[in-house]
Specification:
EC number: 5.3.1.24
CATH superfamily: Aldolase class I
CATH architecture: Alpha-Beta Barrel
Pathway: Amino-acid biosynthesis; L-tryptophan biosynthesis; L-tryptophan from chorismate: step 3/5
Family: Belongs to the TrpF family.
Strand content: 15-25%
Shape: globular
Number of domains: 1
GO molecular function, one term: phosphoribosylanthranilate isomerase activity
Mean pLDDT: 94
Strand order of the largest sheet: 1-2-3-4-5-6-7-8
InterPro entries: Aldolase_TIM, PRAI_dom, RibuloseP-bd_barrel, TrpF_fam
Radius of gyration: 16 Å
Low-confidence stretches: none
CATH class: Alpha Beta
Number of strands: 10
Distance between the termini: 10 Å
């Protein structure tokens, strides 16, 4: 059964509904160019109201040390997701569990990247689109994903309630990550889509 991360959370109502539907993690975007950007203050206020056993994930794109620390200093619960060109040493320097996102460029060598980011708790695989660090709304060729890996794999990129069953059946990822695929408008979740997505993601398990 795949775990589910609902990303692009901007308000408490969406956060609590996603958790009620079974979300295992919530993603908060600290990339100012994103329409789903939230301030550290808003995000930490939401995190302070979350029930236990739900992981808040702080998403950064080539952020400064000050920007990262401004967020994670507000709660001991944060896990960091690095979505830019961050190096392994930088990712590990905060003393916080981290996820490294890899954009699936045609020439990307996953074996090499998995070895480089061996200190990550998981690797997130996302679609590649030039100039767009994430949230492309596009899928990539899932056949490129290794069938066996020592590192938990989080599948992202263009997932929706319509394709999530096929995704978990084909890839059997540790977790799936969705943002735009369950939105009403950018930054506001569609409750019907959220519920449908989580139900389908967790309904199929490898026999």
């Amino acid at each position: 059964m795949a775990r589910v991360k609902i990303c692009g959370i901007t308000n408490l109502e969406d956060a609590l509904f996603a958790i009620e539907c079974g979300a295992d993690a919530l993603g908060f975007v600290f990339y100012s160019k994103s329409p789903r950007y939230v301030t550290p203050q808003v995000a930490n206020n939401i995190v302070s109201k979350l029930p236990p056993f739900v992981a808040p994930i702080a998403l950064f794109v080539d952020a400064s040390n000050e920007q990262v620390n401004d967020v994670i200093s507000g709660s001991s619960r944060w896990v960091i997701q690095f979505h830019g060109n961050e190096q392994p040493e930088e990712c590990a320097s905060y003393g916080v569990s981290y996820i490294k996102a890899l954009r699936m460029k045609p020439d990307l060598n996953l074996t090499t990247e998995f070895e480089r980011f061996s200190s990550a708790v998981a690797i997130l695989l996302d679609a590649y689109k030039a100039g767009v660090p994430g949230g492309t709304g596009e899928t990539f060729d899932w056949e490129r994903i290794p069938r066996t890996s020592d590192k938990p794999i989080i599948l992202a990129g263009g997932l929706t309630p319509e394709n999530i069953t096929q995704a978990v059946m084909q890839v059997s990822p540790y977790a799936v990550d969705v943002s735009g695929g369950v939105e009403e408008t950018k930054g506001k979740k569609d409750f019907i889509k959220v519920k449908d997505f989580i139900f389908k993601a967790k309904s199929w398990s490898k026999q």
